[in-house]
Recover the amino acids of this structure.
């Protein structure tokens, strides 16, 4: 694994050309939102910034650097409740709903989260808050880390599924999927009975799933 951009010391501004990391990140997020991850290259980013690749490389070494910085930037918009209080479930739902909203507002983000260390200050602060909220249940050590892992990965997986569904959210595609399930209802009786492929209310389904996960965490807590 290459060294994370967050573990390298930023070059002193007095030595750097007139281009800031903040401006690079803002433009990278805009590029990703408008054109998708497939269009993100160092050359393309330099063009949008109106600068040369050499100047860009002064601040960021690789495309992975840019993605790490962009991911952390979007999570800076995730609100955190005012301190971990007695309503730990409500705090988790509020935090994770904001996390999900950030990924849905930037559909490229969920797909590039895997395999990255996520050491940026915005993600770290919100993860630290999540640990603090879950610690109210009495969980500690590996159990607490496992609970936080489960909650975070539930949110990432939910966002990935919803983004994928939105890409295929066309009447013809939905109808074809429903007809396929109808033809195979004997093979998949439970899916057919409970409407697996139609009528999904994503917001409500997300909260219900998260509540099921929190019910389980409450039962295993001391």
């Amino acid at each position: 694994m290459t060294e994370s951009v967050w573990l390298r010391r930023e070059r002193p501004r007095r030595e750097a050309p007139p281009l800031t990391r903040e401006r690079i990140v803002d433009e990278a997020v805009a590029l990703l939102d408008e054109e998708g991850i497939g269009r993100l290259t160092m050359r393309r980013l330099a063009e949008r910034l109106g600068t040369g690749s050499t100047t860009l490389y002064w601040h960021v070494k690789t495309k992975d650097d840019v993605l790490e910085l962009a991911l952390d930037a979007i999570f800076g918009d995730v609100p955190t409740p005012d301190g971990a209080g007695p309503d730990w479930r409500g705090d988790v739902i509020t935090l994770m709903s904001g996390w999900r909203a950030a990924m849905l507002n930037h559909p490229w983000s969920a797909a590039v989260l895997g395999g990255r260390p996520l050491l940026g200050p915005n993600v770290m602060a919100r993860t630290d808050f999540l640990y603090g909220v879950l610690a109210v249940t009495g969980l500690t050590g590996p159990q607490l880390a496992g609970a936080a892992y489960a909650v975070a990965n539930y949110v990432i997986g939910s966002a990935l599924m919803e983004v994928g569904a939105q890409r295929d959210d066309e009447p013809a595609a939905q109808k074809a999927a429903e007809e396929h399930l109808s033809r195979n209802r004997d093979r998949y009786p439970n899916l057919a009975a409970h409407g697996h492929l139609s009528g999904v209310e994503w917001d409500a389904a997300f909260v219900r799933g998260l509540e099921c996960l929190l019910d389980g965490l409450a039962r295993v807590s001391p």
The chain is about 65% helix and 0% strand. The chain has a mean pLDDT of 86. The two ends are 37 Å apart (CA to CA).
